Amino acid sequence: MKGLRSYLAQGYWVRFVDIRDNFEFGHEFCGPHRIRGATSPNSGRPLLQLLKLHLTDTRLNLSYPDVSILPLLFSWTCDISQGPLLYQLIDETAIEILRYRAGAAYQDFPYPGYPEHFPVKLVSLVPLSIEEQSTIRKVNNEETDQVYGLRPDLCRPEHQVGGEPFLVQPWIELSCPKCSRGMPFLASIGDHSGSTTGFTGNIFVQTIFSLCVSCRTIGAYQQCD
Known about the structure:
mainly beta; 1 helix
């Protein structure tokens, strides 16, 4: 994808695992959180924690003296979903929201009874193969239409950290509000929540996360098709 820079050259699928499986670093998908500041200014509801990455996984190449987890947060129950959300990690237990789309809180949207969090799932990071990454690049660049029937998972948003993800819309690089530098791609989260209902009910909704390493700023925005 033209212009896309990834913080991690190697991409990793985010795969649900059973606790009996070889489970190494403690990465978690969804679940509740107690992060101070992680509340929507529009609705007063907690931001959704989509992924909690543990920095003990050296493949992430991230190390901070007072932060050992990286929470990826977003919201679909207010106008935050309509623009970039940028927040800074203050320490292990707190964030500061730096920029968001101010506006309305939604009632019964994306669907009635929307939860404050989805059930926590253990996940593992599984490396993309060279062939998988090459195919995703070709799909993004519209260089092939031969893969849709053979590998539909490479032609829709999947949960991924690093590398180049399938993108439903062109890549948008966010700038860090603290230092004004461009923020490279960190992760993509698709609609599958690990429960019987998705995050939005549209399998072509995608949440893109970027990272400014030096400022500990995370950016998130939604794309859909």
